[in-house]
Amino acid sequence: MAITQAPTAKGKAAAKGLHKAAAKQERKVEAKTGQDFKKGEKRFEERAKSSDGKSAGTKQKS
């Protein structure tokens, strides 16, 4: 859920904290591996292939 979509102030604070924690973890992993994470469509394809070696488009067609 996006920060702006949270229905309560407590929810917005939780979403903001989660967003910051995820960004911090991503920077840590990128620094450790020495390369940036793929973003957007490239990352989607990477994640879809990692589970079984097929692309997302191939999975939807079958």
Structure description:
The chain is mainly α. It has one domain. It is built from 3 helices and no strands. It has helices spanning 9-33, 40-52, 56-61. The longest helix has 25 residues, at 9-33. Residues 1-62 are annotated as: Disordered.
The geometry reads as flat
Largest sheet: number of strands, sense, barrel closure: none
Backbone CA Rg = 16 Å
Helix share bin:
over 70%
Number of domains: 1
| Low-pLDDT sequence parts | none
- How many separate helices? 3
What's the average pLDDT?
Answer: 77
Proportion of beta-strand residues: under 5%
Following the backbone from N to C, one meets helices and strands in this order, namely HHH
Specify the structural class: mainly alpha
* Number of E strands: 0
Distance between the termini: 30 Å
